[in-house]
Amino acid sequence: MGPFGRPGGAQWGATPAWTSPHGCGVCVETSKMSSHPQYICLTLLSSSITSAEDNWDIRGCVNLHWVTFFRCLCSLQDDVTVKEISITHHVKEGSEKADPRQFELRKVLGQGSFGKVFLVKKMTGPDAGQLYAMKVLKKATLKVRDRVRTKMERDILVEVNHPFIVKLHYAFQTEGKLYLILDFLRGGDLFTPSLAFILLDEEGHIKLTDFGLSKEAIDHENKAYSFCGTVEYMAPEVVNRRGHTHSADWWSYGVLMFEMLTGTLPFQGKDRKETMTMILKAKLGMPQFLSSEAQSLLRNLFKRNPSNRLGAGPDGVEEIKRHSFYATIDWNKLFRREIHPPFKPASGRPDDTFYFDPEFTAKTPKDSPGVPPSANAHQLFRGFSFVAITEEETQPVQSNNVSSIVQQLHRNTSQFSDAYELKEDIGVGSYSVCKRCISKSTGMEYAVKIISKAKRDPTEEVEILLRYGQHPNIITLKDVYDDGRSVYLVTELLKGGELLDKILRQKFFSEREASAVLYTITKTVEYLHVQGVVHRDLKPSNILYVDESGNPESIRICDFGFAKQLRAENGLLMTPCYTANFVAPEVLKKQGYDAACDIWSLGVLLYTMLTGFTPFANGPEDTPEEILARIGSGKFSLSGGYWNSVSTEAKDLVSKMLHVDPHQRLTAAQVLRHPWIIHRDQLPKYQLNRQDAPHLVKGAMAATYSALNRNVPPVLEPVTCSTLAQRRGVKKLTSTAL
User: Fold this and answer.
1) Which among 55, 457, 461, 471 is least surrounded, fewest beta carbons within 10 Å?
2) Rounded to whole angstroms, how far apart are CA atoms 364 and 353?
3) What is the pLDDT of residue 94?
4) How confident is the model at residue 580 (pLDDT cuts 50, 70, 90)?
5) Which of 441, 35, 67 is closest to 248 using CA atoms?
6) 427 in a known ligand binding site
7) Is the same domain home to 79 and 205?
């Protein structure tokens, strides 16, 4: 790893951890993706393979030495010879030569023994405004060995251009300092003392870093003799110092897989010496809950004779890629990042640092690297500490996570009232109130949703908005505050009003316009469903326009108070394509039912847009029992009256979206493929003949959703009427008679 880092054992950031999918412990201390070892490990493989599509071999540039990726203290003796290691400039293509004055310091992301890492913004050049991580090393604190590693790290990152490896954009030096300008990765890492080199971008794709101890261009004939790395990950030939080749990497790769699959390390003693002895001699204990394919792969990676190890043959990594454990993987799609990651980090604005330790982000950024510890200090350090950080405890999602997010947003314990001025009410609900507010610093108008923590835990809503609020048709979360009693969600102000209000007031409304509106909303819902999110409250009052234009592009879906993210049994967030082995069938069934409910709500909206009245309620005076009976029967009219002006294709879509059986109801993707949506440019432009009574429609719609959300109390009879009481009464009489 690189000669920079922060002390281990600290308390890190804002996202909960999860345990092994097999219930056998923590996969990695705070892993987000450890329930997906196949995805992680196959992506690591793709970072050290020749792309079948592009015929590009990273191994010609650098050996991705898995042993030396991990945090370590080298046992090599210090080189007392004083030498200066020159690090030449590296300039991003199309940009000018960089220097420190071109970067604005935004936040401190980490601090370690040799320097700091800052979040910076480029101020000049074609990439002005771009955010980077700036790693600053003070030359005076670097021994010759460390300077060599820094140069090696720089050289490797310059040479490598790979979708799963962190990119170096600029490298330069001043008289006293070295600067590396790298990708800023908001998404976090698989953080244990040994997995901090696997980073996540905002989409959940992994990237590798920490090349400070990697060996360049080791071939199968030559050997390296360095003894460094986390000892638990060392191959036997590294431990006994007899020289090692690429094959040592595949042993370490096996250790990584074993840890993510089981939550434990394959060889770990009470101390360093015992661990090394176990690596050389102990029998591998293979958990039987692992699949036969996983066991086979691990056994072939844990061969003590390097020449017998999978990946050591003439085909190299191709041997591993052909293994049955990876039988379902399309390696070209993986390389092109076309395989959806199983986890998407919660991140909002580009400069959000939710996963970074507030101990650092709260500091005023100054380019002044810290004093190094003693050379004899036995502390392990992170490599690039600009990576995102997560908590160490394995706790389920709780409301105090909102407080953690707030800490990341605000350097001090500022209150909502310090930054915003409250104005009039916009809407009032059962658990919250929405008000207009004005930023005291900018004068900009926003909306704030004030949620009572005593009534509802807003964590899920906050996480969903952070992850998906960047979608153009989902309301954008601007800020979060927590005063202990209430959580304040500051969002964009939707000035265009409710979708249904605007449509019903519109004198001229055609099928073509209705199709465009439904397409925009359904496309957004499909995006959420693909991510494993169901809204569960898609009533018309939660679909608004951001402005008065009335364009479909200005539609926003809001109020995610009842929304849910698909989670595995261990609490890990999932996307539907990764659910087979980790989500209970009843959870999947419930998620599918909720998704079908979203489509049903859109069907009600479409029905109302086309005719001007609702399918299951005639007006606000309808009773909940009447409405629920109609919904349960699945009967609604698609003929006569206002339906005479509606096309056959529109009626067909409505009937399939409102099907009483959720299993037969269309999915969002199927709605988007329906002819009425695909061929909307050919739909009639003439005005629909609709009921012109907006107040009745609004009342009927409110009555419909009120009936659906109504908790009907059970009808209780006297206790003596129960079967049990009657049976006991009979026994009592019999006993008395006796």
Assistant:
1) 55
2) 15
3) 62
4) very low
5) 67
6) yes
7) yes
Each residue of 521-556: b (16+ CB within 10 Å) or e? bbbbbbbbbebbbbbbbbbbbbbbbbeeebebebbb
Whether residue 163 is found in the same domain as residue 303: yes
| Domain range for 106 | 37-361
> Token pair 């009219």 is at which residue?
637
* 135 labelled ligand-binding: yes
Give pLDDT tens digits for 275-304.
Answer: 899 989 888 889 888 899 999 999 999 998
C-alpha 386/C-alpha 187 separation (Å) is 11
> Which 3 state secondary structure label does DSSP give 548?
coil
Q: Is the pLDDT of residue 11 over 50?
A: no
Whether the CB-CB separation of 489 and 573 falls below 8 Å is answered with no
User: What Å distances lie between residue 135 and 4, 86, 97, 408, 465, CA to CA?
Assistant: 9, 17, 17, 21, 31
Residue 17 · residue 395 · CB < 8 Å: yes
Active site residues: 537, 539, 542, 559, 579
Q: Which residue do the tokens 């709500």 mark?
A: 601
Read off the pTM.
Answer: 0.57
Q: Is residue 112 marked as binding?
A: yes
Number of domains in the chain: 3
In a domain, 187, yes or no: yes
Averaged pLDDT, 227-240: 75
The response to whether 435 counts as a known ligand-binding position is no
- For residue 393, the model assigns a pLDDT of 28
Same domain, 576 and 687: yes
Name which of 221, 285, 223 is nearest 67 in CA terms.
223
Is residue 114 annotated as involved in ligand binding? yes
Q: Are 69 and 214 in contact (CB under 8 A)?
A: yes
Question: Of the residues 340, 361, 382, which one is the last residue of a structural domain?
Answer: 361
User: Does some domain include residue 392?
Assistant: no
**Which residue, of 475, 492, 509, is where some domain finishes?**
492
CA angle 83, 87, 89 (to 5 degrees): 155
